[in-house]
Structure formats: structure tokens, C-alpha cells
Amino acid sequence: MIETVSVKKLIRSKKGQSLIELTLIFPLMLLMVYGVVEVGQIISTYLTLTHTTREGANLASRGTPPNTALDAIILAADPTIRNDNLSQWQIIYTEIIQAPDTACLTPPTGCTYMVSDKVDGQIYRGSFGQSSKLGGAGTIITPSILPGIENVIAGQIFKAIEVFYDYGPNVITFIGNNIDKTFYDRTIFTKVGGQA
């Protein structure tokens, strides 16, 4: 009988009311915290990919050998891009050149560009299984894919880095299931020093 009275007093007291409210609200608060953590992970991943494409294209455009540039950006993108999650990402280096058999009437927008068909004109790293959105070796590229080329000289070479990443949330919440989990970013730089 004594226990029943003390439980009734606890329920009727303000402390008891606060405890019950906390018990009911705590799962919702916990879910919101997990959501905030996951949104933070998404933003961090996206920023890492953007930085990776920019640094890779910058290195390649300044004359760094493509394989060395790719090794450097993969190392810098750790822990998002690692050697133990190869199936989760794909990095593609592409060299874009002026098509050799076409005249460049009004440089550069009147020029025809294509993906280089050299052996190292396109290099893939990772095993996510995505293809370059620029196309394969020998693919003709329209100037609309190369924004900002109005002041580029004829015969200019471009270096592009594309990154695909399959985002797998670390924290299981509703957010990870409601977004497109394949992230993509691309950066294209002109070769420093002009033509080939």
C-alpha cells in the first residue's frame, strides 16, 4: 500500500510530470540529433568531393602526371575516399583536346573538342562502375560542356576530374533513404601554358 501511494504522489508531482514528458519526448529528440549528424556527414562528404575535383584538375593542369595527381587527391580525400572502400567511389581523369581533323573557325567556341584518345587520355580509379559524363576516348564534346571558354586560345587542352561517390550514411535515419545517394562533381581546368 505504501508503494502505491508513493507512485501516485510521484505521478501527481511536478517532478513526475517532467519525467513523463521527458520520457515521451526523448526518442524524438534523439532522432533529430541523429538527423543533424547525418546532414553534417552529407555536407562534409560533398565538400570533400568538390575539393577533390578542384585540386585534381588544378594539379593536372599544371603539368603533374595524371597518375601522380590522382594518387595525391585520393590521399587527401581520406577518410571519405579510401583504398578499403573502392566500390563506393570512382574518380576519372580526362584530357580534352581540340579535334585534330576539324578547323577552328572562331576560337574557341567555334572549335570542336574531344576526349583525348591517347593511352593516358582517360584514367579511372575506384570501382564504383560509373562512366565519364564527358564520354569515352574520341567522344566529341560540345562547347556548352566547357563553360567559360570564351577567352581560351585555339588548340587549348583541358584537364577534367570527375568524382562519383555512393553515399552510405553512417547513422541510420530517415534522411539517408530520402536523398539521391550517388554524388557527382566535376571540375575542368585549362592546361597552364596553353597548347600541347
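Second entry:
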Amino acid sequence: MKTRLMLSFAAGVATLFVLAASASAQTHVITTLADARWGPAPPMLPPGAQIAVLAGDPSKPAPYTVRLKFPANYVVPAHSHPNDENVIVVSGDLFIGMGNKLDKTSATALGKGGYALMPASHNHFAFTTSEATILLYGIGPVDFTYVNPADDPRKK
């Protein structure tokens, strides 16, 4: 019994090492903001945003990093995500607030270098007053659940 337990433990540890090694065996990524290859953001975001995927695949259950560019006066209505979302402002100003509906008076302005952690399953919203670029990273898959289903651009 003790030998069988030791073998099971050893097999488990070996599996963890293999998984860790395969997870870290990624391609090296070194890029500048000028190198970004922009395209339309996924339809879960309102039209007008652009995305540049830097690493990973946001649609997969794995780490990802993307840049998002929002035009002036862009609004992302109240929504939540199934996983934590990390936001860093690269340029411009992004206004973020917590709650079930967009409330510009309660939002916090994040300028260049500003950071926000949007916890999984917590409703929040965002908007811009001028063009803004953010770095967004976390663990996928990325999805949006809009508080008001009528705000979901995939249903329009």
C-alpha cells in the first residue's frame, strides 16, 4: 500500500513537471507598440475597437496578452467576465467603474501607466473621452456577460 501510494505521488509530480515544461515552452515575444498588427476587436465588444494579440489565444483556457485600442467616446456597458482581467493603460485615458450600469460620475480615470484588476464575475464598465490603448492580460477563454442583454453587440 505504501509503495503504491509513493508511486502514485511520483507519477503525479512527474505529470506536473511535464505540464509546467510544456506551458513554459512558448515562443519568445518581444514587440513595440509600433509593431502592433491591429485588426477589428471580437464581436463581444462594441464596434470600433481594435485588437492586437501579443501572446496566447484569448479564446483558449490559457494565458493571453492583447492590446486593445478604443476610439474617443467609446463605451463598454456594464458586464462581467468568467476570469480575472488585468488592464494597463498604454496611452490616453480609460475610465473604469464597478456596478450594474454605466455611471460616468463614479468611474475612475486611469491615465498612462494606470492599472486595474477586474475580478471574475464582478460587473464593471469602461469608457473613453479620447483615443486610448490598453494592455489586457489574464487566463482565457475571454467572454463577456452583459448585465443588460440588450447591450450585447453580438445580439444586434
